[in-house]
Design brief:
Layout (H helix, E strand, L loop, with lengths): L9 E4 L3 H12 L5 E5 L16 E2 L6 H16 L3 E3 L2 E5 L2 H17 L5 E3 L1 H7 L10 E5 L3 E3 L1 H14 L3 E5 L3 E7 L2 E7 L2 E4 L3 E3 L5 H7 L7 E11 L15 E4 L4 E6 L2 E6 L24 E2 L3 H14 L1 H4 L5 E12 L6 E4 L6 E5 L6 H14 L21 H12 L24 H6 L2 E6 L2 E7 L5 H5 L9 H4 L5 H11 L2 E4 L4 E6 L3 H8 L11 E7 L5 E11 L2 E6 L4 H10 L8 E4 L4 E7 L3 H8 L16 E6 L2 E6 L8 E7 L3 H12 L5 E2 L2 H12 L32 H9 L5 E7 L18 E2 L16 E7 L4 E8 L9 E6 L2 E10 L15
Parallel strand pairs: 1-2, 1-13, 2-9, 5-15, 13-21, 24-34
Antiparallel strand pairs: 3-8, 4-8, 5-7, 6-7, 10-11, 11-12, 14-17, 14-19, 15-16, 16-17, 18-19, 20-21, 22-23, 24-30, 25-28, 25-29, 26-27, 27-28, 30-33, 31-32, 32-33, 35-38, 35-40, 36-39, 37-38, 39-40
Helix pairs in contact: 1-5, 1-9, 2-9, 14-19, 17-18
């Protein structure tokens, strides 16, 4: 039996590519006394690393995932375990060819060089054994390659050992995790117990099982990915390399094919979703090959083999070529398709590094190690943060439903606004039935069903005519309606009522609340009770973690309101920032309150008619950025005069059980004034863009700072706060980029159809070259949408200072064509109502 030390500074559970990468990067960050455990033997202990196909395609439509993948490829190259082969994603359909144009654009946005669209003949030239008559073309990426992930893990493990930082314990099974007062205190194993205040779960498909030992949740499910290796292939008999031709992704059939020495590997994501429980994975002793290489189910793969035969008849159709290996390999799927990384919300010191594929493993491990050490990961991991999950996300029914739905979309053409269909509805606003009656088109946010637009507002289309900026192209008409723009105009003209039930709300109370909030918030929170503060939160390096509002309701009582999508992650930031002496506490009121937004020139008249008249709602009596109680139809509500749409109005917070009564009262009061129900398409897109409001995950992320975002206030508060030192330095220096609003001058495509960008497209110079700032960041569209009140399609983008000049002419690339754009605003001045007179009326 292997001996384990009695004490460690950090225990990493799992010695696949993720665990080995974690051990190495923790050592690089200065950690010592690291213990790496795995129940299997080295170098291949039995997890997914041992059977992965090991190829890496660099481009993803996600900026975050591309950054992790590019960094991983760099690390593999430095370890000399990466063989660059090139790769081609081939298209069988016109729709896929259009999608490949998007792949080229994303490559340009994220700095992936050398990519191009190729003809069937060019594909044939690079892959001579393909039947080019089956395809219409492809997307070629020269940086694609194959990694020896087992060797990479071995080298990283050895490097950490050479630093004197790592003890490796193979053949050791974890039997429990000790938690005391919400903090991890040790790991129990069949070889002895290890006291440790920091533990990293990096054991892939087994991660949920290990997390449960600590009372935490890692919401993933093991799933089958089928793969066969056939051979020997006659045309490869004299090969000297594992891969001598570009790797092919047959995207329309959800498959990939590649040379594998003298063999030919075919993998599929097209079969039915085959899910397992982590507790049902067989032991090493009971496995014929390994615990994650399960018996092959031929009937699931037969249709895919026919597709492979069609594309590669010379190889797959050769009767002399036999099956060398056929497996149902296990991998990890999550409810939203992203990795699960970061410190668990349930247990301090317990970190997750799970649902990570070979292609992004070292990059993510580096980020997690930085996060654990300094709190400053170089790559923003917010889309993968384990703290993003609400409780309903952690339920097996939800995990399995979303994993099943997402599996066949692995190579799918997924629209940026595409909605999940499974396991809905989950969370319903008290006004949900009213929304149904009004013909709402529901989008999901944090499990809430949110109206994106209302079918009953179709009558507004006649009122506003061409001002609704109708769209004819199918792609950008998908998950969209001109009714959104009509609702926008009606709100600007009269008033709109918006359901904001997806907000996350939590109160911070106690004598230590003010000091804790001042320490977290950039802007001053020590204001008079009844005032509302909009503030960003930063990390130590000055990167933007979040933006939200804080209302001071009493001397020791504050209410935080933040967007639903990152609500639980923001909650963790505040929870972690509370004093250890217990003088402040956090109370999550997300499920206790609903929120309605009332905005527009007639909002004051409507609120006055709906309320009992006791609250002074005049501009003088209820100024901007203030809050007070307002009684509406016998219900005591809290109204905050704030606006994310650029109009006079209020957010109204209501006890959720009384929400329907308040909605109905506001609805009745609004009818004489022409008020309309308004969806999130107006609230979060069109009105926001016209006002130049920044959004977290779009304009606001760790890559950028407040000066670049145009959010630096004239002065900085005296109180210290996280990121203050870095922020002051950035204020003293010239910005490396400036956030701008651009207008599309002519969106007519070569076909004559007007096209409307949706976001993430590259911004180019007039000569078509990418714009790159002094930090190496490329300019891309952070947000895009209609501006009905200004009559332009609007884009936001960070530009290098020499390009961030009002009136400057640039280009945006969209589906392979380039469209002229103009810098309308450099900085934060709104295009619509630049003096903010409407908000303050």
């Amino acid at each position: 039996m292997v001996a384990v030390p009695a004490r460690a500074d950090v225990v990493v559970i799992g010695a696949g590519i993720v665990g080995n990468s974690m051990a190495y990067h923790l050592a690089e960050q200065g950690w010592r006394n690291i213990v790496l455990l795995d129940k299997g033997p080295m170098p291949s202990p039995g997890g997914s690393t041992g059977h992965a196909s090991n190829f890496i395609f660099l481009t993803d439509h996600s900026k975050e995932m591309t950054a992790f993948t590019v960094d991983s490829a760099r690390q593999y190259e430095e370890l000399d375990v990466y063989d660059t082969t090139g790769g081609i994603e081939v298209a069988r359909t016109p729709e896929r060819m259009e999608e490949l144009k998007r792949r080229v654009a994303s490559s340009t946005s994220w700095g992936i060089e050398g990519v191009r669209l190729v003809t069937p003949a060019e594909v044939k030239e690079m892959v001579p054994f393909i039947d080019e008559s089956v395809i219409l073309g492809g997307f070629y990426s020269p940086g694609v390659g194959i990694v020896d992930s087992l060797q990479a893990g071995t080298l990283m493990r050895q490097k950490a050992q050479d630093m004197g930082a790592l003890t490796v314990a193979a053949g050791v099974e974890v039997t429990g995790i000790d938690v005391v007062d919400g903090h991890v205190r040790g790991v129990r194993t069949d070889a002895g117990d290890i006291a440790a205040d920091t533990v990293v779960i990096a054991c892939g498909v087994w991660s949920p099982r290990i997390a449960r030992m600590a009372g935490a949740s890692i919401p993933l499910v093991p799933a089958v990915h089928q793969m066969i290796d056939i051979g020997p292939v006659p045309m490869f008999e004299n090969t000297t390399k594992e891969v001598g031709f570009p790797i092919v992704r047959d995207m329309d059939t959800n498959m990939y094919e590649r040379q594998h020495g003298t063999g030919f590997e075919v993998g599929s994501y097209a079969h039915r979703a085959i899910l397992m429980d982590a507790d049902d994975i067989p032991s090493i002793e009971a496995s014929a090959l390994s615990p994650t290489m399960l018996p092959f189910t031929q009937e699931d793969f037969d249709p895919q083999l026919e597709d492979a035969l069609e594309l590669f008849p010379e190889i797959v159709g050769d009767e002399s070529v036999g099956v060398k290996l056929a497996i149902n390999g296990l991998l990890s799927l999550t409810p939203d398709g992203n990795p699960i990384i970061g410190e668990t919300p349930e247990v301090k010191g317990l970190w997750s590094a799970a649902a990570i594929w070979i292609k992004e493993a070292p990059g993510i491990a580096k980020a997690v190690a930085e996060w654990m050490t300094t709190g400053e990961p170089e790559i923003d991991p917010h889309g993968s943060d384990i703290a993003r999950f609400y409780e309903h996300h952690k339920v097996d029914q939800h995990i399995n439903a979303r994993a099943t739905e997402g599996f066949n979309k692995t190579y799918g053409i997924v629209h940026p606004m595409e909605q999940w269909a499974s396991n809905r509805p989950i969370r319903l606003s008290p006004a949900y039935d009213r929304h149904v009656e009004l013909g709402a088109e529901f989008f999901e946010a944090a499990g809430w069903e949110r109206p994106f637009w209302y079918g009953t507002n179709e009558s507004l289309l006649g009122e506003y005519g061409e001002r609704v900026m109708p769209r004819k192209a199918e792609w950008e008409s998908r998950w969209w309606s001109p009714i959104i723009n009509a609702e926008h105009l009606a709100m600007r003209d009269r008033a709109g009522l918006v359901d904001l039930s997806a907000f996350a709300i939590f109160d911070i109370t106690g004598p230590g609340a003010l000091a804790a909030l001042e320490r977290l918030a950039v802007n001053k929170v020590d204001v008079a009770p009844g005032r509302t503060v909009y503030t960003p939160l930063l990390n130590k390096a000055g990167g933007i973690l979040a933006d939200l509002t804080i209302m001071r309701l009493g001397h020791d009582h504050f209410r935080v309101v933040t967007g639903g999508g990152m609500g639980m992650r923001d909650r963790k930031i505040f929870q972690d920032g509370l004093p250890a002496d217990g003088t402040a506490s956090l109370h999550d009121l997300t499920n206790a309150y609903t929120t309605f937004g009332l905005w527009g020139p007639r909002a004051r008249d409507i609120l006055g008619a709906a309320s009992d008249g006791r609250a002074d709602i005049s501009h003088k009596g209820f100024p901007f950025l203030s809050s007070k109680t307002v009684d509406i139809d016998g219900v005591r509500t809290l109204a905050s005069r704030i606006s994310y749409v650029g109009e006079l109005g209020w957010e109204i917070y209501v006890p959720i059980e009384q929400g329907l009564r308040v909605w109905d009262a506001l609805w009745r009061a609004g009818q004489p004034h022409g008020m309309v129900p308004v969806g999130i398409g107006t609230y979060a897109v069109t009105s926001r863009l016209e006002k130049g409001y920044r959004a977290h995950g779009a304009e606001l992320e760790l890559d950028f700072d407040l000066v670049e975002a145009g959010m630096a206030r004239p002065t900085v508060k005296d109180a210290d706060f996280v990121g203050r030192e870095a922020y002051l330095k950035k204020r003293d220096a010239a910005p490396v980029a400036i956030l701008c609003t651009l207008t599309v001058d002519d969106n007519t495509s070569k076909s004559g159809v007007k096209r409307y960008m949706l976001g993430r497209e590259p911004i180019l110079a007039q000569d078509g070259s990418p714009l790159v700032d002094a930090k190496g960041r490329r300019s891309y569209v952070t947000s895009a949408g209609s501006g009905p009140s200004v009559g332009k399609h609007l884009l936001m983008s960070y530009l290098p200072p020499d390009q961030a000049v009002e009136g400057n002419k640039l280009l945006v690339e969209y589906f392979g064509e380039r469209y002229p754009v103009t810098v309308a605003v450099a900085g934060a001045t709104p295009l619509f109502d630049p003096e903010n007179e409407r908000i303050r009326s």
